[in-house]
Amino acid sequence: MLSGTSVTAAASPEELLDRFIAANSRQRRSLLTQVLQRRVELRPIVADQLDRLDATADDWAAGTLIQELLAEADDLSQAFERRYPEGWLAVSSGKGIDYVPLQQALARQRFEEADRITSAILRQLAGADAVRRGYVYYSEVPAFPAVDLESLDRLWLVYSQGRFGFTVQLRLLRSLAGRWDQLWPRLGWKQGGVWTRYPGSFTWSLTAPEGHLPLVNQLRGVRLMDALLNHPALQQRVSA
């Protein structure tokens, strides 16, 4: 009998895509390399299969397939954009925030741009004073609508193979028993002065450490990030 790896290697593009979509998260990890290697074969059939995945969840398999589809500026990617002008992932806002630019940046793996958009959205959530001053006070975070933090987190999760997002950072912090000094090296951050060297001190690709993005400025200490990660919306998502 052929091993599972041999069977998958010999699979048609349709069979490989079907297995990837139907698989659980662990199985998808094992198939991911082959999916990425066979992008050229898979791209023409991706769009019609996305309906099998839940656009209201946070399934990184969909985001990965979309990123591969959009990797080329051709008729396939243009047809996808016409089909999903607001992006495939369904997100919403309690403050009328437009998440289309963020989803477009993430879907094209423009992570530095996405990080800047995320920071701007956090200021919008904090209110007009935060937008004017250019940063968020930790005391403004508890009033953030839950739906917006969920939308931000889901967008980063879906378009990062599950590697980036606030809940990824929160799970890492919990695994370290709340030790912030141990979290920074795990995220690939350096507390304090590194923020004066933005963006050159950070990695803007999927090769970054788990939880590396989105960034939260720590020049004023950990209180802003602590307030974000302790928001009930994120706590509930990790505990669910």
In the predicted model, the low-confidence regions spanning at least 5 consecutive residues are 1-8
Q: What is the CATH domain class of the largest domain?
A: Mainly Alpha
**If classified by CATH, what would the architecture of the largest domain be?**
Orthogonal Bundle
Number of strands: 0
CATH superfamily of the largest domain: Gun4-like
Distance between the termini: 40 Å
What is the succession of H and E elements? HHHHHHHHHHHHHH
Helix content: 55-70%
Question: Can you tell me about this structure?
Answer:
- The chain has 240 residues and is mainly α.
- The protein folds into two domains: 4-83, no CATH class; 100-239, Gun4-like (Arc Repressor Mutant, subunit A, Orthogonal Bundle).
- It contains 14 helices and no strands.
- It has helices at residues 4-9, 13-22, 25-37, 39-46, 60-69, 75-83, 100-107, 111-126, 128-133, 146-158, 166-175, 180-187, 223-229, 232-239.
- The longest helix has 16 residues, at 111-126.
